[in-house]
TrEMBL record, chain A:
Pfam families: FtsX (PF02687). Keywords: Cell membrane, Membrane, Transmembrane, Transmembrane helix. This is FtsX-like permease family protein. Belongs to the ABC-4 integral membrane protein family. It comes from Micromonospora endolithica.
TrEMBL record, chain B:
SMART domains: AAA (SM00382). It comes from the Bacteria. This is ABC transporter ATP-binding protein. GO terms for cellular component: membrane protein complex; plasma membrane. GO terms for molecular function: ATP binding; ATP hydrolysis activity; transmembrane transporter activity. It holds the Pfam family ABC_tran. Residues 6-224 form the ABC transporter domain. Keywords: ATP-binding, Nucleotide-binding, Transport. InterPro entries: AAA+_ATPase, ABC_transporter-like_ATP-bd, ABC_transporter-like_CS, ABC_transpr_LolD-like, MacB-like_ATP-bd, P-loop_NTPase.
Amino acid sequence: MSGLGRVIRSGVRRRRVQTIVIGLVTAAAVTATVLGAGLLVASKAPFDDAFAAQRGAHLTVQTDTDLVTESQLTASASAPGVVAAAGPYRVLVVTFAERAGMRLPPLTIVARADPGGAVDRVELASGRWPARPDELVLGGGHVRIPPGVRLSAPGGTEFTVVGTARSVSDTASAWVLPSAIGALDGPGTADGYQMLYRFADARTATEVESGRDAVVATLPPGVVTGARSWLDVRQRAVEDAAVFVPFLVAFALLGIVMAILVVGTVVAGSVGAATRRIGILKALGCTPAGIVRAYVAQALFAATVGAVAGTVTGNLIALPVLAETEQLYGSANATIAWWVTLLAAGGMLAVVAVTAWIAALRAGRLRTVDAIAVGRASGPARGRWASHLAARLPVARPVGLGLARPFARPVRTIAILLAVATGSAATTFATGLGASLLRIETALDQNVADVTVSGDRAAGPGTPLTADPAKALATIDAQQGTQARYGLAKAPGTVVGISDRVSVTTITGNATWDGFEMVAGRWFMAPGESVASGPLMKAAGARIGDSVTVHVEGTPVRLHIVGEVFESNMAVFTSTTTIADQKPAEYRVALTQGTDAGDYAETLTGALAGQALTAQPTGLETDPLLVVVEGLTATLTLLLLAVAGLGVLNMLVLDLRDRVHDLGVHKALGMTPGQTIAMVIASVAGVGLVGGLLGVPAGIAMHRLVVPMMAASGGLHLPATLLDVYGPVPLAALALGGPMTALLGALLPAGWAARTRTATALRTE
Amino acid sequence: MTDPVIELCGVTRHYDKGPPALDDVSLTVHPGECVAVLGPSGSGKSTLLNLLAGLDRPNAGTVVVAGTRLEKLGEAASARFRRAHVGLIFQFFNLLDDLTVLDNVLLPAQLAGAPARGSREHAARLLDSLGITRHARAYPGRLSGGERQRVAVARALINRPALLLADEPTGALDTASGEDVRHLLDDLHHSGQTIVLVTHDLRLAEACASRTIHLRDGRVEAER
C-alpha cells in the first residue's frame, strides 16, 4: 500500500463517526434522488414511447355535425403549424346492451376504416380490426369484454366484439367501420365529428393552444364542441406515479443540501481537528495535492458505501409505486432506468467530491510551520463578547458557558443551525403533507356522513331505491340524533368530445356539509345549476359561468356551471330539481354530537321498515396510494432527521475534540459531569431553537409549494382550506423539534465529555 | 494538634503493566505547611498531585484530603470536593482564553454555586492583593506570563481552599516573573495557606517550602 493509501486508511479508521455520518448522509440523499428522478422518468417514459410509436394526436377536436362540412374539416389540416391530420371521423355516444340484457356504460364510438394513418395509429391488443358493419373493437381501458361477445345497439342492431385496441391519445372507447354509423345513429344518440392533429411544436400548453387557435380559425365559428390537448391525456395517464414526484424531488433537494452541508463541515472539521497531523505529514514530505487527495478520498470512501446503499434502498422503495405504472401500460419494464440510478449515485459522489475538495483545500494550503505550531498559541478571539455577556446571565454558569460557545465557532454553528433547520423543515413539511393528504382524501371521498341509508344490498350499489324519497327523508328527519341529511344518485353520463365517462350526481337536500370542498365559485342553488370537477371543466374547455350538455341515459341535460368542486374524476353535481327522474340511491346522515352511530342506525332501520331501506354506520376506507405516500414521507423524514441529528453529533464531537483541554480545565476547577452535560447541551440548545424556528417556515413554504404541485400532477386545483393545516399547537411542537433534534444529537458527545478523565484531558494538546 | 490537611497512606498508582508511578507512598501535611515535592521527570510528582486533587485514584492505599477520602469518590463527588477544598495552579496557567480575567477568577465560585455578590467582592479583593485589578476586564492572551500566573493564583484562591496545589508554577515563566511568583507563594504560605508545590525549581522550594520531599521512581527518596 502506498504512503497516501496508508494515510487515507488511518484517516477513515480514526474518524469513525465522520465516516459513518458521510455514509448515512450520502445514502439518504441518493435514496431520495433515485426515487425522485427515477419515478419522474419512469412515470412518463412508457406514455412518451407509446405516443411516439402511435403518432399520437397533439390535439383532438370534436365538432358539431350540422354546422360544418367534412370538406371544411379536411381543409383545417392545412392550418399553420399542423404537420399531420386525420379525420374527420364520425363520433357517436352509444349505450349498448349485452345479450343478457345488462346495460353497458355509454361508449364513445369512432368510425374509422382502419387503425393506421398519419395520426393516432390505434394499436390492436387482441383480435382484429372490424371487417363488417356489425363488428366493433373495444378500447382496452374502458370496458373489458372479450372478443366474440355480441352487443345490442339502441336501434336493435347487434354488433360483435372482434378485438380490443388501445389509443394512446384516448380518442375513443370503441371503433367501428364508417359503414356502421347508420345502424348506430338514432334518437338520443349524441354525435359529432372528430379531427386529430399533430403540430410542429406541441411541447407546451401554450404551443398546443396556439395550434388549436390556428385550427379553430380555419373553421366556421361555434362548430368546435371540444378540444383536448395531448398534455391533458398524458397528465391523466401518468398522474398516479407523477403525484409522488414533487414531494420526492423536495426530499431529494433536502437530502442534497444536507449532504453538501454535512460533508463540507465533516471534512472541514477533520482538517481543523487534524491540523497538527497535516503539518507533520507535510514536514515528512507529503505534498499539498497529496493532502487534498487524502481528504477527498476519505470522504469518497464513506460516500461510495452510502451511495451503494442509497441506490439499493431507492430502487426497492420505488418498486410498489412503479408496479401501478406497469399495470397502467401493460409494460413489463416499469423499473427505474439504470442511467437514472447511475446518474443519482454518480452525481451525489461528485457533489461529495467537490464539497470535500473545497474543504480540503485549506489543508493543502496550510503552512507546515503554522500547522505544527497549532495548540501552542492562543485560539482565535471570536465570540468573546458572547462569553462576557453569558457570564452575566441569570443562569447556572455551565449553561452560560454553553450558550456562549456557538459564537466562538460561527462556521460550525451555522452548519449545526442549517442541519437542524433542514431536519425541522423536513418534519414540518412531512407533517403538513400528511395532514393535507388526509384532508384531500376526505374531500375526494365526499363522505363524512356518520350513517348511510341504502336499499337492498343484493341489487348492487348505485341501484335506485324504490322507496318514496319524501317519505324516507321525513323518517330520517324524525329520527332523534339527525343533524343533517341528503339523498344522492349517481349515473354515468357523457359529454360530446370527451371519451371518458362523466359521473353525474343528483342531490336531494343540502349536501354541502359532506366533505365537498369548493375550488372556486359556489355550490348550486337553483334548478339547472351545477358544480363540476376540474378535470371535467378542463376536458370540456369550460369555465365557471359556462354551460355544458351532459347526456344522462340518452337524455341531454343542459347544466350551468356555478362552481368548481374538488374532485379528481370527470364529475358534475346538480340538484334533483334539475334531473328529476334520478331517484336517490342512498341517503347520508350526519348525527348530532354524542349520538352513537350504531344505535342510531339500528333504530332508524326499524323506523324505515316497509320502505326497503337499511341504515348502517359509514365505514372508513383509506386510499392505498395515500398509505404509500405517507409511508414514504415518514421514512424519508426519519432518515433526514437522523442525518440532522448525526450532523449535530458530528460537529459537537469535532468541537469537543478541539477543546478537550479546556474541558479538562473546567473539570479541574470543579465542574461536575452533570454540569459538563448541561454545558454541552446548552451549547446546541439555542442553535437548535433558532434552527427550529427557521426550519418551520421553510417547511411550511415547501408544503405550500409542493402539495399544490402534487395535486396539479393529478390534474387538481387545491382549495385553500386543504392547505391550511398548521394550527398554533402543532407549530409550537414543530418549533420545539429543532432543539429536540439538537438535544438528541448532543446526548452522545455530552456523555463522552462528562466521562472524559480530567487528568487525560489536561494532558491533551 | 489540628487534623492534617493531607494524609496519604501506602499509596500505589501504576498504569498498564509498567513500573508503578507511585509506589507505597505515605505522606502527612498539616495546616499552614508548604511542602515542595522535588524529583526528576517520571519520578511520580504529577501523579502525586493528581491524586491529591482527586483527578486520579490510587490502585492501593488511602488518600485523605481535608478530611475526605478521595479514592472512594466518583467523578461528580471529586469535582465537588475540588471546588470546595482545593485550588489548582498549573505550569501553563490553563486560563480560559475566551473569558476575561475576572470571569476566569470567578468561574470556580460560579461552578460551586456561591452567591454572586460575595464572589465578586472576594475576586476584587484577590485581584487587588495580587496587583492585577487593572487587568480585570482584559483577556488572558494580552497578559505577560507572570500576570497570567497571578490570575491563576487568584482563581485557585477564590473558593478559599484548604489546600493549594501548584504544578511547576514557575516552569513557564522568565526569571523576573518566576521571582514574582515565588514571592507571591511565600506570602501565601506566611498568611497560613497550606501549599503543596511540585517543582524542579530548587530556588522556589528553598524560598517557600517549610518541608521538601524528594521522589525518585515513585518512592519517597528523602524528606527534609
